[in-house]
Amino acid sequence: MPITVLKSAPGQPPQAAAGIADTVSVMLARLRAGGAQVALEYARNLDGWEGPVMVTRAAIDAAAARVPQALKDDIAWAHENISRFAAAQRATAQDMEIELRPGLLAGQRQIPLNAAGCYVPGGRYAHIASALMTIATAREAGVPDITACSPPRGAAGIPDAMLYAMDLAGAHRILTIGGVQGVAAMAMGLFGAPPADILVGPGNAYVAEAKRQLFGPIGIDMFAGPTDSLILADGSADAELVAADLVGQAEHGATSPVWLATTHRPLAQAVLARIPDLIAALPEPNRSAARAAWNDLGEVALCDDREEMAQYADAKAPEHLHVQASDLDWWRGRLSCYGSLFLGEETTVSFGDKAAGPNHVLPTGGAARYTGGLSVHKFLKTVTWQRVTGPARDDLARVTAGISRAEGMEGHARSAELRRLPQADTMAATSKG
Ligand SMILES: NC(=O)c1ccc[n+]([C@@H]2O[C@H](COP(=O)([O-])OP(=O)(O)OC[C@H]3O[C@@H](n4cnc5c(N)ncnc54)[C@H](O)[C@@H]3O)[C@@H](O)[C@H]2O)c1
Ligand SMILES: [Zn+2]
Protein backbone atom coordinates (compact mmCIF):
# COMPACT_ATOMS: atom_id res chain seq x y z
CA MET A 1 0.00 0.00 0.00
CA PRO A 2 1.40 3.44 -0.86
CA ILE A 3 1.72 5.82 2.10
CA THR A 4 -1.20 8.26 2.41
CA VAL A 5 0.00 11.83 2.52
CA LEU A 6 -2.33 13.87 4.76
CA LYS A 7 -0.38 17.09 4.34
CA SER A 8 2.07 17.49 1.49
CA ALA A 9 4.89 19.99 1.10
CA PRO A 10 4.18 22.28 -1.85
CA GLY A 11 7.63 23.85 -1.61
CA GLN A 12 10.99 22.24 -2.25
CA PRO A 13 13.92 22.78 0.12
CA PRO A 14 15.85 25.38 -1.86
CA GLN A 15 19.05 24.10 -3.44
CA ALA A 16 22.01 26.38 -2.79
CA ALA A 17 21.25 29.20 -5.22
CA ALA A 18 23.69 29.25 -8.12
CA GLY A 19 24.41 32.88 -7.28
CA ILE A 20 25.78 31.93 -3.87
CA ALA A 21 28.53 29.71 -5.29
CA ASP A 22 29.63 32.52 -7.62
CA THR A 23 29.54 35.15 -4.86
CA VAL A 24 31.59 32.95 -2.54
CA SER A 25 34.12 32.08 -5.23
CA VAL A 26 34.75 35.78 -5.97
CA MET A 27 35.01 36.55 -2.24
CA LEU A 28 37.51 33.74 -1.62
CA ALA A 29 39.67 34.79 -4.58
CA ARG A 30 39.78 38.35 -3.24
CA LEU A 31 40.52 37.08 0.29
CA ARG A 32 43.37 34.88 -0.99
CA ALA A 33 44.92 37.85 -2.74
CA GLY A 34 44.27 40.55 -0.13
CA GLY A 35 44.19 38.67 3.20
CA ALA A 36 43.21 40.52 6.38
CA GLN A 37 42.69 43.83 4.57
CA VAL A 38 39.95 42.33 2.38
CA ALA A 39 38.44 40.39 5.33
CA LEU A 40 38.10 43.66 7.26
CA GLU A 41 36.48 45.28 4.25
CA TYR A 42 33.83 42.50 4.08
CA ALA A 43 33.29 42.67 7.86
CA ARG A 44 32.61 46.39 7.53
CA ASN A 45 30.38 46.18 4.46
CA LEU A 46 28.39 43.05 5.32
CA ASP A 47 28.23 43.20 9.13
CA GLY A 48 28.98 46.87 9.88
CA TRP A 49 31.96 45.88 12.03
CA GLU A 50 34.79 48.36 12.47
CA GLY A 51 36.15 47.06 15.77
CA PRO A 52 39.11 44.77 16.44
CA VAL A 53 38.83 41.16 15.21
CA MET A 54 40.83 39.33 17.90
CA VAL A 55 38.88 39.39 21.18
CA THR A 56 41.20 40.25 24.07
CA ARG A 57 41.37 38.38 27.39
CA ALA A 58 40.13 41.54 29.11
CA ALA A 59 37.09 41.72 26.81
CA ILE A 60 36.26 38.04 27.43
CA ASP A 61 36.50 38.51 31.19
CA ALA A 62 34.38 41.67 31.06
CA ALA A 63 31.75 39.83 28.99
CA ALA A 64 31.71 36.93 31.46
CA ALA A 65 31.13 39.33 34.32
CA ARG A 66 28.00 40.62 32.56
CA VAL A 67 26.42 37.17 31.98
CA PRO A 68 23.76 36.40 34.64
CA GLN A 69 24.89 33.63 36.98
CA ALA A 70 21.84 31.47 36.18
CA LEU A 71 22.72 31.47 32.47
CA LYS A 72 26.37 30.74 33.27
CA ASP A 73 25.24 27.76 35.32
CA ASP A 74 23.04 26.51 32.45
CA ILE A 75 25.90 26.84 29.96
CA ALA A 76 28.26 25.04 32.35
CA TRP A 77 25.75 22.21 32.87
CA ALA A 78 25.30 21.71 29.13
CA HIS A 79 29.06 21.97 28.57
CA GLU A 80 29.67 19.21 31.10
CA ASN A 81 27.30 16.84 29.25
CA ILE A 82 28.76 17.63 25.84
CA SER A 83 32.35 17.26 27.07
CA ARG A 84 31.68 14.01 28.92
CA PHE A 85 29.98 12.51 25.87
CA ALA A 86 32.91 13.55 23.65
CA ALA A 87 35.42 12.20 26.18
CA ALA A 88 33.65 8.83 26.24
CA GLN A 89 33.71 8.84 22.43
CA ARG A 90 37.44 9.64 22.49
CA ALA A 91 38.01 6.57 24.61
CA THR A 92 36.50 4.38 21.85
CA ALA A 93 39.08 5.61 19.31
CA GLN A 94 41.95 3.30 20.15
CA ASP A 95 45.50 2.84 18.99
CA MET A 96 46.18 -0.79 18.09
CA GLU A 97 49.07 -3.06 17.17
CA ILE A 98 49.10 -6.50 15.56
CA GLU A 99 51.83 -9.00 14.66
CA LEU A 100 50.65 -10.09 11.18
CA ARG A 101 53.53 -12.57 10.71
CA PRO A 102 56.50 -13.29 12.94
CA GLY A 103 58.63 -10.15 12.53
CA LEU A 104 55.91 -8.13 10.78
CA LEU A 105 54.36 -5.60 13.18
CA ALA A 106 51.73 -3.09 12.15
CA GLY A 107 49.46 -0.69 13.98
CA GLN A 108 47.27 2.34 13.93
CA ARG A 109 47.45 5.56 15.91
CA GLN A 110 44.82 8.19 16.57
CA ILE A 111 46.48 11.57 16.13
CA PRO A 112 44.61 14.81 16.82
CA LEU A 113 44.79 17.49 14.14
CA ASN A 114 47.09 20.39 15.02
CA ALA A 115 44.66 23.28 14.50
CA ALA A 116 40.87 23.49 14.29
CA GLY A 117 38.67 26.38 13.16
CA CYS A 118 35.20 26.40 14.71
CA TYR A 119 32.53 28.52 13.02
CA VAL A 120 29.80 29.58 15.44
CA PRO A 121 26.80 31.01 13.57
CA GLY A 122 25.35 34.21 14.82
CA GLY A 123 23.31 35.92 12.14
CA ARG A 124 19.65 35.21 13.02
CA TYR A 125 20.05 33.59 16.45
CA ALA A 126 23.00 33.65 18.86
CA HIS A 127 23.91 29.95 18.68
CA ILE A 128 25.51 29.54 22.13
CA ALA A 129 25.07 25.76 21.99
CA SER A 130 26.94 25.51 18.67
CA ALA A 131 29.99 27.02 20.38
CA LEU A 132 29.94 24.22 22.97
CA MET A 133 29.30 21.49 20.38
CA THR A 134 32.26 22.36 18.15
CA ILE A 135 34.88 23.72 20.54
CA ALA A 136 34.40 21.25 23.42
CA THR A 137 34.50 18.33 20.97
CA ALA A 138 37.77 19.55 19.41
CA ARG A 139 39.15 20.00 22.89
CA GLU A 140 38.24 16.46 24.03
CA ALA A 141 39.76 15.08 20.82
CA GLY A 142 43.04 16.65 21.94
CA VAL A 143 43.41 19.40 19.31
CA PRO A 144 46.11 21.68 20.73
CA ASP A 145 45.07 24.88 18.94
CA ILE A 146 41.43 25.90 18.53
CA THR A 147 40.24 29.10 16.90
CA ALA A 148 36.57 30.10 17.11
CA CYS A 149 34.89 32.82 15.10
CA SER A 150 31.41 34.31 15.05
CA PRO A 151 29.89 37.35 13.38
CA PRO A 152 29.27 40.52 15.37
CA ARG A 153 25.66 41.10 16.39
CA GLY A 154 25.49 44.85 16.18
CA ALA A 155 28.01 47.31 17.56
CA ALA A 156 28.63 45.23 20.71
CA GLY A 157 30.19 42.41 18.68
CA ILE A 158 29.84 38.77 19.76
CA PRO A 159 27.19 38.51 22.54
CA ASP A 160 28.51 38.15 26.09
CA ALA A 161 27.02 34.70 26.70
CA MET A 162 28.49 33.43 23.44
CA LEU A 163 31.97 34.67 24.39
CA TYR A 164 31.55 33.06 27.78
CA ALA A 165 30.60 29.73 26.19
CA MET A 166 33.44 29.83 23.63
CA ASP A 167 35.95 30.52 26.38
CA LEU A 168 34.55 27.91 28.76
CA ALA A 169 34.60 25.29 26.00
CA GLY A 170 38.30 25.90 25.47
CA ALA A 171 38.87 28.14 22.44
CA HIS A 172 42.46 29.37 22.36
CA ARG A 173 41.44 32.50 20.50
CA ILE A 174 38.17 34.11 19.47
CA LEU A 175 37.69 36.21 16.33
CA THR A 176 34.82 38.64 15.80
CA ILE A 177 34.22 37.91 12.16
CA GLY A 178 31.54 35.89 10.37
CA GLY A 179 30.40 34.58 7.01
CA VAL A 180 32.83 33.79 4.20
CA GLN A 181 35.43 36.18 5.61
CA GLY A 182 35.29 34.38 8.99
CA VAL A 183 35.73 30.95 7.44
CA ALA A 184 38.54 32.27 5.23
CA ALA A 185 40.30 33.93 8.18
CA MET A 186 40.54 30.56 9.93
CA ALA A 187 41.48 28.65 6.75
CA MET A 188 44.15 31.13 5.69
CA GLY A 189 45.48 31.93 9.14
CA LEU A 190 44.59 35.64 9.41
CA PHE A 191 44.40 37.87 12.51
CA GLY A 192 46.93 35.88 14.53
CA ALA A 193 45.34 32.42 14.05
CA PRO A 194 47.36 29.57 12.52
CA PRO A 195 45.89 28.13 9.29
CA ALA A 196 43.29 25.56 10.39
CA ASP A 197 43.61 21.89 9.44
CA ILE A 198 39.83 21.49 9.63
CA LEU A 199 36.83 23.85 9.53
CA VAL A 200 33.78 22.77 11.50
CA GLY A 201 30.44 24.16 12.53
CA PRO A 202 27.09 25.03 11.00
CA GLY A 203 26.29 28.24 9.20
CA ASN A 204 24.12 29.79 6.52
CA ALA A 205 24.39 29.08 2.79
CA TYR A 206 27.40 31.42 2.36
CA VAL A 207 29.28 29.76 5.21
CA ALA A 208 28.48 26.23 3.97
CA GLU A 209 29.52 27.11 0.41
CA ALA A 210 32.78 28.70 1.61
CA LYS A 211 33.65 25.52 3.51
CA ARG A 212 32.78 23.41 0.45
CA GLN A 213 35.01 25.48 -1.83
CA LEU A 214 37.93 25.44 0.64
CA PHE A 215 37.68 21.67 1.19
CA GLY A 216 40.54 19.59 -0.22
CA PRO A 217 43.77 21.02 1.11
CA ILE A 218 41.81 21.62 4.32
CA GLY A 219 39.26 19.31 5.99
CA ILE A 220 35.64 20.09 6.82
CA ASP A 221 33.18 18.33 9.12
CA MET A 222 30.41 18.01 6.52
CA PHE A 223 28.34 20.04 4.11
CA ALA A 224 25.48 21.14 6.41
CA GLY A 225 22.44 22.92 5.04
CA PRO A 226 19.19 23.96 6.73
CA THR A 227 18.17 21.80 9.67
CA ASP A 228 15.38 19.15 9.31
CA SER A 229 13.39 16.89 11.66
CA LEU A 230 11.13 13.85 11.43
CA ILE A 231 8.83 12.51 14.16
CA LEU A 232 7.56 8.92 14.06
CA ALA A 233 4.50 8.45 16.27
CA ASP A 234 2.06 5.63 16.98
CA GLY A 235 -1.28 5.68 18.80
CA SER A 236 0.48 5.99 22.15
CA ALA A 237 1.87 9.45 21.29
CA ASP A 238 0.58 12.71 22.76
CA ALA A 239 -0.66 14.98 19.95
CA GLU A 240 0.11 18.12 21.94
CA LEU A 241 3.77 17.13 22.40
CA VAL A 242 4.13 16.07 18.76
CA ALA A 243 2.63 19.36 17.51
CA ALA A 244 4.81 21.43 19.87
CA ASP A 245 7.95 19.57 18.77
CA LEU A 246 7.19 20.08 15.07
CA VAL A 247 6.53 23.80 15.57
CA GLY A 248 9.62 24.16 17.77
CA GLN A 249 11.92 22.85 15.06
CA ALA A 250 10.11 24.78 12.30
CA GLU A 251 11.26 27.93 14.13
CA HIS A 252 14.73 27.40 12.61
CA GLY A 253 13.49 29.06 9.45
CA ALA A 254 11.60 28.97 6.19
CA THR A 255 14.03 26.47 4.66
CA SER A 256 13.84 23.93 7.51
CA PRO A 257 11.41 21.06 6.88
CA VAL A 258 9.60 19.18 9.65
CA TRP A 259 7.85 15.89 8.94
CA LEU A 260 5.51 13.52 10.81
CA ALA A 261 4.84 9.89 9.96
CA THR A 262 2.24 8.01 11.99
CA THR A 263 0.15 4.86 11.93
CA HIS A 264 -2.66 6.60 13.80
CA ARG A 265 -5.02 8.82 11.76
CA PRO A 266 -6.66 10.51 14.79
CA LEU A 267 -3.21 11.58 16.02
CA ALA A 268 -2.34 13.03 12.61
CA GLN A 269 -5.61 14.94 12.52
CA ALA A 270 -5.16 16.28 16.05
CA VAL A 271 -1.62 17.44 15.25
CA LEU A 272 -2.72 19.08 11.98
CA ALA A 273 -5.49 20.89 13.85
CA ARG A 274 -3.23 22.09 16.65
CA ILE A 275 -0.18 23.38 14.73
CA PRO A 276 -1.62 26.70 13.41
CA ASP A 277 -2.47 27.83 16.96
CA LEU A 278 0.95 26.94 18.28
CA ILE A 279 2.60 28.84 15.44
CA ALA A 280 0.34 31.86 16.01
CA ALA A 281 1.37 31.90 19.68
CA LEU A 282 5.11 32.29 18.90
CA PRO A 283 6.71 35.74 19.05
CA GLU A 284 7.92 37.35 15.83
CA PRO A 285 10.11 36.80 13.84
CA ASN A 286 10.01 33.15 14.93
CA ARG A 287 6.29 32.99 14.06
CA SER A 288 6.83 33.89 10.41
CA ALA A 289 9.80 31.54 10.16
CA ALA A 290 7.81 28.61 11.60
CA ARG A 291 4.72 29.39 9.49
CA ALA A 292 6.72 29.48 6.27
CA ALA A 293 8.57 26.26 7.15
CA TRP A 294 5.35 24.44 8.03
CA ASN A 295 3.25 25.68 5.13
CA ASP A 296 5.87 25.12 2.42
CA LEU A 297 7.87 22.17 3.68
CA GLY A 298 5.83 20.47 6.43
CA GLU A 299 4.58 16.98 5.65
CA VAL A 300 2.32 14.46 7.42
CA ALA A 301 2.24 10.85 6.21
CA LEU A 302 -0.12 8.07 7.32
CA CYS A 303 1.51 4.62 7.32
CA ASP A 304 0.00 1.14 7.60
CA ASP A 305 2.43 -0.22 10.17
CA ARG A 306 5.68 0.52 11.94
CA GLU A 307 7.81 -1.13 9.25
CA GLU A 308 6.35 1.29 6.69
CA MET A 309 7.15 4.19 9.06
CA ALA A 310 10.71 2.93 9.34
CA GLN A 311 11.02 2.80 5.53
CA TYR A 312 9.70 6.35 5.31
CA ALA A 313 12.36 7.40 7.86
CA ASP A 314 15.18 5.62 6.01
CA ALA A 315 14.14 7.36 2.78
CA LYS A 316 14.08 10.80 4.40
CA ALA A 317 17.39 10.21 6.26
CA PRO A 318 16.54 13.14 8.55
CA GLU A 319 19.01 15.14 10.58
CA HIS A 320 16.90 14.65 13.73
CA LEU A 321 14.72 11.56 14.11
CA HIS A 322 12.36 11.43 17.06
CA VAL A 323 10.36 8.30 17.91
CA GLN A 324 7.27 8.82 20.07
CA ALA A 325 6.00 5.26 20.00
CA SER A 326 6.06 2.07 22.03
CA ASP A 327 8.82 -0.57 21.87
CA LEU A 328 11.70 1.89 21.65
CA ASP A 329 14.30 -0.90 21.56
CA TRP A 330 12.77 -2.21 18.33
CA TRP A 331 13.03 1.26 16.80
CA ARG A 332 16.63 1.78 17.87
CA GLY A 333 17.57 -1.53 16.27
CA ARG A 334 15.57 -1.01 13.07
CA LEU A 335 16.30 2.62 12.09
CA SER A 336 19.48 3.20 10.12
CA CYS A 337 19.46 6.64 8.47
CA TYR A 338 19.55 9.65 10.80
CA GLY A 339 21.97 12.19 12.22
CA SER A 340 20.79 11.73 15.80
CA LEU A 341 17.97 9.62 17.25
CA PHE A 342 15.65 10.77 20.04
CA LEU A 343 13.84 7.95 21.81
CA GLY A 344 10.54 8.41 23.61
CA GLU A 345 8.26 11.31 24.36
CA GLU A 346 10.14 12.34 27.49
CA THR A 347 12.98 13.54 25.30
CA THR A 348 12.80 16.22 22.61
CA VAL A 349 15.06 17.46 19.83
CA SER A 350 15.40 20.74 21.76
CA PHE A 351 17.23 18.88 24.55
CA GLY A 352 19.76 17.60 22.03
CA ASP A 353 20.03 20.99 20.32
CA LYS A 354 21.11 22.72 23.50
CA ALA A 355 22.17 20.56 26.39
CA ALA A 356 21.86 16.76 26.36
CA GLY A 357 25.36 15.75 25.23
CA PRO A 358 25.45 14.09 21.77
CA ASN A 359 26.58 16.59 19.14
CA HIS A 360 24.02 18.79 17.40
CA VAL A 361 26.16 19.49 14.34
CA LEU A 362 24.53 16.88 12.12
CA PRO A 363 24.08 15.90 8.46
CA THR A 364 21.12 17.58 6.75
CA GLY A 365 19.25 17.18 3.47
CA GLY A 366 19.54 13.37 3.35
CA ALA A 367 23.31 13.26 4.00
CA ALA A 368 22.52 10.98 6.97
CA ARG A 369 22.42 8.17 4.37
CA TYR A 370 26.23 8.21 4.36
CA THR A 371 27.50 10.06 7.43
CA GLY A 372 26.90 10.80 11.07
CA GLY A 373 27.44 14.18 12.67
CA LEU A 374 30.34 15.99 14.26
CA SER A 375 32.30 13.86 16.73
CA VAL A 376 35.80 13.58 18.17
CA HIS A 377 36.59 11.29 15.22
CA LYS A 378 36.45 14.26 12.81
CA PHE A 379 39.33 15.85 14.75
CA LEU A 380 41.42 12.66 14.77
CA LYS A 381 43.47 11.07 12.02
CA THR A 382 43.58 7.29 12.09
CA VAL A 383 47.08 6.70 10.71
CA THR A 384 49.02 3.46 10.35
CA TRP A 385 52.62 2.27 10.80
CA GLN A 386 54.56 -0.91 10.04
CA ARG A 387 57.89 -2.38 11.15
CA VAL A 388 59.65 -5.41 9.71
CA THR A 389 62.36 -7.36 11.48
CA GLY A 390 64.13 -10.65 11.05
CA PRO A 391 62.12 -13.58 9.81
CA ALA A 392 59.42 -11.61 7.93
CA ARG A 393 61.96 -10.00 5.58
CA ASP A 394 62.47 -12.93 3.21
CA ASP A 395 58.80 -13.68 2.75
CA LEU A 396 57.97 -10.03 2.18
CA ALA A 397 60.84 -9.66 -0.29
CA ARG A 398 59.74 -12.71 -2.28
CA VAL A 399 56.03 -11.84 -2.36
CA THR A 400 56.62 -8.14 -3.06
CA ALA A 401 59.08 -8.91 -5.86
CA GLY A 402 56.62 -11.37 -7.37
CA ILE A 403 53.72 -8.94 -7.35
CA SER A 404 55.91 -6.01 -8.45
CA ARG A 405 57.27 -7.86 -11.50
CA ALA A 406 53.76 -9.00 -12.45
CA GLU A 407 52.81 -5.31 -12.35
CA GLY A 408 55.82 -4.35 -14.42
CA MET A 409 57.42 -2.46 -11.53
CA GLU A 410 61.06 -3.62 -11.55
CA GLY A 411 62.27 -0.83 -9.24
CA HIS A 412 59.86 -1.94 -6.53
CA ALA A 413 61.05 -5.55 -6.92
CA ARG A 414 64.70 -4.53 -6.49
CA SER A 415 63.97 -2.43 -3.37
CA ALA A 416 62.17 -5.44 -1.92
CA GLU A 417 64.93 -7.94 -2.73
CA LEU A 418 67.59 -5.74 -1.13
CA ARG A 419 65.79 -6.51 2.17
CA ARG A 420 66.39 -10.24 1.98
CA LEU A 421 68.42 -11.57 4.86
CA PRO A 422 72.08 -12.20 4.01
CA GLN A 423 71.52 -15.86 4.88
CA ALA A 424 68.78 -16.11 2.27
CA ASP A 425 71.19 -14.70 -0.34
CA THR A 426 73.72 -17.32 0.56
CA MET A 427 71.13 -20.08 0.41
CA ALA A 428 69.88 -18.81 -2.95
CA ALA A 429 73.46 -18.63 -4.23
CA THR A 430 74.20 -22.12 -2.94
CA SER A 431 71.10 -23.69 -4.42
CA LYS A 432 71.75 -21.91 -7.72
CA GLY A 433 75.41 -22.85 -7.83
N1 LIG B 1 22.70 21.85 11.76
C1 LIG B 1 23.02 22.40 12.89
O1 LIG B 1 23.53 21.73 13.75
C2 LIG B 1 22.80 23.87 13.12
C3 LIG B 1 22.93 24.43 14.40
C4 LIG B 1 22.81 25.82 14.53
C5 LIG B 1 22.54 26.61 13.41
N2 LIG B 1 22.39 26.04 12.20
C6 LIG B 1 22.16 26.81 10.99
O2 LIG B 1 23.13 27.84 10.89
C7 LIG B 1 22.60 28.87 10.10
C8 LIG B 1 22.91 30.22 10.72
O3 LIG B 1 22.76 31.23 9.73
P1 LIG B 1 22.83 32.77 10.07
O4 LIG B 1 22.66 33.49 8.80
O5 LIG B 1 21.92 33.05 11.18
O6 LIG B 1 24.30 33.04 10.67
P2 LIG B 1 25.73 32.81 10.04
O7 LIG B 1 26.68 33.19 11.12
O8 LIG B 1 25.86 31.47 9.44
O9 LIG B 1 25.88 33.86 8.85
C9 LIG B 1 26.00 35.23 9.07
C10 LIG B 1 27.01 35.80 8.06
O10 LIG B 1 26.54 35.64 6.74
C11 LIG B 1 27.17 36.60 5.93
N3 LIG B 1 26.26 37.04 4.89
C12 LIG B 1 24.96 37.36 5.03
N4 LIG B 1 24.46 37.79 3.85
C13 LIG B 1 25.45 37.73 2.95
C14 LIG B 1 25.57 38.03 1.55
N5 LIG B 1 24.52 38.49 0.86
N6 LIG B 1 26.74 37.83 0.94
C15 LIG B 1 27.81 37.38 1.63
N7 LIG B 1 27.76 37.07 2.95
C16 LIG B 1 26.60 37.25 3.59
C17 LIG B 1 27.56 37.75 6.82
O11 LIG B 1 28.93 38.02 6.67
C18 LIG B 1 27.28 37.26 8.23
O12 LIG B 1 28.40 37.43 9.06
C19 LIG B 1 21.11 28.58 9.94
O13 LIG B 1 20.90 28.09 8.65
C20 LIG B 1 20.86 27.50 10.99
O14 LIG B 1 19.82 26.62 10.66
C21 LIG B 1 22.52 24.68 12.04
ZN1 LIG C 1 16.60 22.78 16.64
UniProtKB/TrEMBL annotation:
Question: How is this protein annotated for GO cellular component?
Answer: cytosol
Q: Which residues cross the membrane?
A: none
Q: How is the cofactor bound?
A: Binds 1 zinc ion per subunit.
- Keyword Metal-binding set for record: yes
One annotated GO molecular function is: histidinol dehydrogenase activity
Q: Which GO terms describe its biological process?
A: L-histidine biosynthetic process
UniProt-annotated binding residues for substrate: 227, 249, 252, 320, 353, 407, 412
Q: Which domain of life is it from?
A: Bacteria
PROSITE patterns for this protein: HISOL_DEHYDROGENASE (PS00611)
List the active site. Answer: 319-320
Statement: the UniProt record of this protein carries the keyword DNA-binding = no
User: Can you tell me which residues bind NAD(+)?
Assistant: 119, 181, 204
Which annotated residues bind Zn(2+)?
249, 252, 353, 412
Alphabetized, the UniProt keywords read: Metal-binding, NAD, Oxidoreductase, Zinc
Cofactor(s) the protein needs: Zn(2+)
The record ties this protein, via Pfam families, to: Histidinol_dh (PF00815)
For this chain, the family text in UniProt reads: Belongs to the histidinol dehydrogenase family.
**Record PANTHER family:** HISTIDINOL DEHYDROGENASE, HISTIDINOL DEHYDROGENASE HDH
Give the protein's recorded name: Histidinol dehydrogenase homolog
